[in-house]
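Task card 7
Instruction: Convert sequence to structure tokens.
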Amino acid sequence: MSNPLSVQYIQTPRLHIAYEHHGPAEGEPVILLHGFPYDPRSYDEIAPDLAARGYRVIVPYLRGYGPTRFAGPGILRSGQQAALAQDLLDLMDALKIPRAALAGFDWGGRAACIVAALWPERVRCLVSADGYNIQDIAGASEPRAPDTEHRLWYQYYFNTQRGVDGLTANRRELCALLWQLWSPSWARGDALYGLTAPSFDNPDFVEVVIHSYRHRFRYAPGDPSLEHIEQALVRPPPIRVPSISLCGADDGVGPASVEDEDLGRFSGPYQRRVLAGVGHNVPQEAPEATVQALLELLRG
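Output:
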């Protein structure tokens, strides 16, 4: 487990970002990005391992999580994908990191995929849980097969006032349920959840989460200052950097398919690995596989 004293802060144009730093400052940088509803604890068995090998490891709290705070009251509490990607770029700029290896899942995987696709010169390599995570917002309202639709109930819930009120009143209980549903075969989830749950007490957590799931269905406007990024994603761009996709066979959001539906989205060196007995929280459920993937790319 990370030492709370390792939390550091950096100012960016939109955020006062809290992050955990491991390893030597002169090491090759690796940035590890969590998703919803998780936090840096997803990397507790990964960051120290990489640091011991000489890498400089940065694990930020995303906007709306833990001690990260917005830089001012007038900044839209956006959870859109462009905001997550811009936050990652701003973090790298503030820390003077010209190029880094990226690993992420869920929201964090989305940020990593966007930066890898649009700013490949900033990305050494990419490990993305569940592959190509860039949202196709233009097609988001198209209905899917019923066995997929029922897994997305929480997204529809957050598009109602009842969902806003429910997340506000029951954020820890609701997120605990999502952990159980999304990682049904993970025996350690219940015991570890309490280490992450305090991150959801962030004052902007609810607003950021609600905006994220409303924007993706075009029921909420995005941040106008980020529209240029959203426009660049209308026709999903390919990812050219060396990449490995780690997919949980037991992922309750969407179990890994037999065929690789993302194959055409990666135009550079690319591998896909399906992890048996692993759910949605890939780094925390399969830390050894995650470290192995990163090291293969970094050394290769």
